[in-house]
Amino acid sequence: MAFGSFSGVCGWMPWKDQDLVNQRHEFVLRALEPGANISALCRELPVSRKTAYKWLKRFRERGVLGLEELERGPARTPLACTADVAVEVLALRRAHPTWGARKLRAVLLRDRSASEVPSSRTIGRVLHRAGECKPRRARKRRKAARGQAPEVVVEGPNDLWTVDFKGWWRTRDGSKCEPLTVRDAWSRYVLTIDVLEKPSYELVREVFERLFEAYGLPKALLSDNGPPFVATSGQVGHTRLSAWWASLGIRVVRSRPGCPQDNGGHERMHRDMAAELELNPAAEPSEQQKSCSRWRVEFNHHRPHQALEQSTPASVYRKSRRVYPSSPPELVYPEWMATRRVSCSGALRWRGYHRHLSTGLAGHNVGVEDLGSKRFRVWFGPECIGEGVLPWVAPLGPVTDLESTQPDNTDSGDV
Questions:
Q1: What band does 401 get if pLDDT is binned at 50, 70 and 90?
Q2: Neighbour-count burial of 74, counting CB atoms closer than 10 A to its CB (0-12 exposed, 13-18 middle, 19+ buried)
Q3: For domain 161-316, which CATH number applies: 3.40.1160.10, 3.90.1150.10, 3.30.420.10, 3.40.50.2300?
């Protein structure tokens, strides 16, 4: 049938009343005739010139099939999520309540291709619809802390270890559980979680001896101001534990009192322990230790970390090259300093007088620097622990009870 005029020959009807493919086919055939006026045909239809040329292009590429209606949805929907992926997301979330959408997506990418795994936003929406997202409580703003936070350069593994006791809880048999946790600040690698009977020097030292033998020595150790890390009642501040660390060449760093943000990464790890371990206590302490060990393996080898570009701590941590010596080396001071050993009672003897420093320094060498004008400065390793004026040596601050300083006739040697 000759095409003729759309309105006259074909009796043009509205688009919705005719077969779209046939209409487009007739239009394309007329448009392809020699000398056809595309603009006139578009006005007659009516249709835009952009749409007309789109039909012509599809017809040349695919024939009549190219004139069929195509899907209007996007070729890829990043916000879509299949049922099996949604089930796996919810299973991972329930096994790890503290893991967010980004961590869950990183875990899914280990076993699935990127095209199968939805975006973090979609995973968050799945968690929200399943009721797995709890609203965050508004935190009270704290007053700005006084003083400056301790400055430690952390550029690689073992530059800084952090140590603290997790707040205690009770196992189901009523036993008290107070884990000691040690962590590498750069890699987030948890070196140990030990459920100790009590926070004593002897038990904590045994833990660190084992860690030093397994991982080597760190450059610095950061702790809070609680026992057995710091002696808050003494002017020097060293305990037997921190003095032992310093004697091994480890810089002892203390956070500011009342400022847990100085060790924020460690406190964040403790929050995860509270959600995943403390809320589900074991039957008794030995079982709790097994649970803590399993949690540590999960944290180090399976949990991705955003600060590590979703890598695991175990994949980036390396042992220290500083080997733990079989016996602590003696502290050596420059020749222009006088070396003195602190007595078992924690006293320093100097020029016929003695002054109590700290029982934590008992058995260790200190260096005495002569400043002139009867002033002296006392050093413990690279740390200055106090200054004084003869006839007494005052550690870290003024001493008002001068009469308590008695001459010691047993050591009358001068420099």
A1: very low
A2: exposed
A3: 3.30.420.10
Q: State how beta strands 220-223 and 190-196 pair.
A: unpaired
The pairing of strands 176-184 and 190-196 is antiparallel
Query: At residue 80, what is the residue type?
Result: A
CB 94 within 8 A of CB 280: no
Domain ranges of the chain: 15-67, 83-129, 161-316, 338-404
Task: Count other C-beta atoms under 10 Å from residue 38's C-beta.
Answer: 14
21 vs 16: CA distance, rounded Å: 12
| Residue 352 main-chain phi, psi, to 5 deg | 85, 0
pLDDT higher than 60, residue 13: no
CB distance 269 to 183 below 8 Å: yes
Q: 205, 207, 170: which is closest to 192 by C-alpha?
A: 207
Closest by CA to 195, choosing from 213, 207, 184, 205, is 207
Nearest to 369 by CA among 382, 352, 354: 382
Question: Please, which pLDDT band fits residue 142 given cuts at 50, 70 and 90?
Answer: low
CB atoms within 10 A of CB 374: 11
Please identify which residue in the block is written with the tokens 């070396």.
Answer: 339
- Which tokens is 225 given? 């101001």
Q: Which of the four pLDDT bands, split at 50, 70 and 90, describes residue 195? A: very high
Reply yes or no: is the peptide bond before residue 74 cis, omega within 30 of 0: no
Question: What is the pLDDT confidence band of residue 27, given thresholds at 50, 70 and 90?
Answer: confident
Dihedral sign for Cα 351, 352, 353, 357, please.
positive
**Sequence-distant (≥ 6) Cβ neighbours of residue 98 within 8 angstroms:** 271, 272, 275, 276
By the 8 A CB rule, do 199 and 227 touch? yes
Question: Residue 216 is encoded by which pair of tokens?
Answer: 């080597």
Beta bridge partners of 183: 162, 190
Q: Do domains 83-129 and 161-316 have the same CATH topology?
A: no
Tokens standing for residue 245:
């660390």
Span 63-73, average pLDDT: 74
Fold designation for 83-129: Arc Repressor Mutant, subunit A (1.10.10)
pLDDT digits (tens, 9 = 90+) for 267-283: 999 999 988 888 889 99
Summarised one tens digit per residue, pLDDT across range 152-191 is 889 999 999 999 999 888 999 988 888 999 999 999 999 9
Q: Please check the confidence at residue 414 and state whether its pLDDT lies above 50.
A: no
